[in-house]
Amino acid sequence: MSGDHDFNVEHTKKKKVAFIGISSLMMLGMVVAVTIGIKDTGNGGKYNDDDDGLATSSKAARSVCHVVEHRHACERTLAHVHTSDPNKIVQTTFNAAVVKLEGALAKSSSIKVKKDDPRTAGALEACKEAMEYAIGDLKRSIDQMGHFDIRKRDECVENMRVWLSSSMTFLETCIDAFENTTGDAEEKMKSMLNGPRELTCNSMDVATELYTIFKSLKNTNTSQAHKRSRAEEKGKVNKEGEAQLWADLRERKLLHERGATMRADVIVSKDGSSKFKTITEALKEAPHIDANKVGTIVNKTFVIYIKEGTYEEDVRVEATMSNVMFIGDGPTKTIITGKKSFADGFALYKTATISIMGRKFIAKDIGFENSAGTIDFIFGNAAAVFQNTRLVIRKPLEDQDCVITAQGRLNIKGPTGFILQNCTIMADPLYYPLRHKNKAFLGQPRKKFSRTIILQSYLADSIDAEGWKQWSGTFAEDTCYFAEFENRGPGATLTGRAKWHGIKNISKHEADGFTPEKFYDGNRWIRPTVVPYIPGMVPK
Ligand SMILES: *[C@@H]1O[C@H](CO)[C@@H](O)[C@H](O)[C@H]1NC(C)=O
Ligand SMILES: *[C@@H]1O[C@H](CO)[C@@H](O)[C@H](O)[C@H]1NC(C)=O
Ligand SMILES: *[C@@H]1O[C@H](CO)[C@@H](O)[C@H](O)[C@H]1NC(C)=O
Ligand SMILES: *[C@@H]1O[C@H](CO)[C@@H](O)[C@H](O)[C@H]1NC(C)=O
Ligand SMILES: *[C@@H]1O[C@H](CO)[C@@H](O)[C@H](O)[C@H]1NC(C)=O
After folding, report:
1. CATH no. of 54-216
2. Which of 33, 124, 362, 460 has the most CB atoms around its CB within 10 Å?
3. Does any ligand 2 atom lie closer than 6 A to the CB of residue 219?
4. What confidence tens digit (pLDDT) does each residue in 72-120 have?
5. pTM, two decimal places
6. 374-539 belongs to which homologous superfamily?
């Protein structure tokens, strides 16, 4: 299992800045020109800072607002932007979201909670924390834009999309924390966050526009600078890539010969034979990034080797911990079991056996189980691929159904989604006889743009013929993105499936786009860890 939310910010050396600075402006200049070319054809892609008198913002600025969901908010943000420098326009968009959010955070102190209402007080605390993280993610995006490296443009823009998605998720988490609280705190918080949520969403749309355009430019020679950077890129990939490949192979061999302990930063064991007895203690050793400090880098994977044993803890990989890897002794030997359950009254996101808020998390050879009996196996808003994972459906509480995934993508252009590839979905023997009473589903649209793809997996007959379950009435039936591709087993028959607009029949090409290499550039960040994984489709 691996999840990619976030990447390192690379600071370029001073010497290179001049060249990079100029070429990034050229590239971004083209971005706006292209946008104008589509939306504002009368101008032939040329624009200047003179205005036609209808609004005070530049044409370049206004053209950006054509691509966002909340257009009025965008126009208000850019109303007094006179520059045609696309980098500045993008940064202004991001900055506006930060300013609005910081305002909301300050204002949230005015929300009063009754002394005898710990639930609302807890929600308010959780919400403020989430807002701080959201601000941190936005600031990282601005910082990235300020250090835009043309040679790594795809990576830079992908970073921003991931941070912006994360920022949106934190704001959503903030509102979710108030579920079932009494009083008007939830309504107040919702109205305070309205503006910041719109502006964060717009920022994501703008970043996605850059991403789409860079991707489409990939194989065309558009400018001298572009040519040069591609040549540079290519030379680097050839030389370093090859060296890296050999290093990987050597290391992989070593890993095989000497066992995972060789590379672990810390070791956890139940029997006390190593320094840590719990995963939670070991995680404290992981390098933290300061949520409010932009540009902080975690450069190295922090490997926690968890020896055989059953660990009864609710593990939280915090947002400040990135590049953490768990390696166990095998899924039936190293087992993490949670303790909390929904029924105990914890907010949903705190009920998980393991919750991952940090980025670039990888887990291998570990079993996860929730002994308390929960509704969803895997939920949240992340870009996560589960490979060669066995998901065992266990007997739920009396009147519950079982749902494997409840993905929470919030923006139609957001980069997140759950991908289950070459997995096995099966029933526990105690559950199997109950499969018609307590039905099992592949997923549920937890949020409007929920996205889940079941790929090249084995589905046992315990999966209900409908396949997917409604969340609340017809909510998100049209906007979600659920797909099954090249699955096998009795549960993989598609004839009885629910017929929502959001349940897609995808092509091989589309399916390939959800494999680690294409979905989140896994070759860049997973390969260096030498963990074996499947980068593309499993050959038939
Ligand atoms: C909120 O209340 C509803 C209805 O009583 C219930 O179904 C749901 O589980 C509750 N949610 C939380 C987080 O307690
Ligand atoms: C792009 O440039 C390379 C070398 O600079 C050349 O071989 C190639 O044909 C060019 N492609 C296009 C589409 O112009
Ligand atoms: C990241 O790691 C590389 C290679 O290990 C090193 O050269 C570089 O200085 C590191 N960067 C930071 C910011 O620590
Ligand atoms: C896919 O899963 C099967 C077990 O279901 C396993 O035997 C096979 O090695 C996996 N394929 C890859 C490429 O890992
Ligand atoms: C999905 O599309 C393919 C062709 O793209 C078609 O052969 C197949 O029948 C379709 N499946 C369903 C369930 O509609």
Report:
1. 1.20.140.40
2. 124
3. no
4. 999 999 888 887 777 788 889 999 999 999 999 999 989 888 888 888 8
5. 0.74
6. Single-stranded right-handed beta-helix, Pectin lyase-like (2.160.20.10)
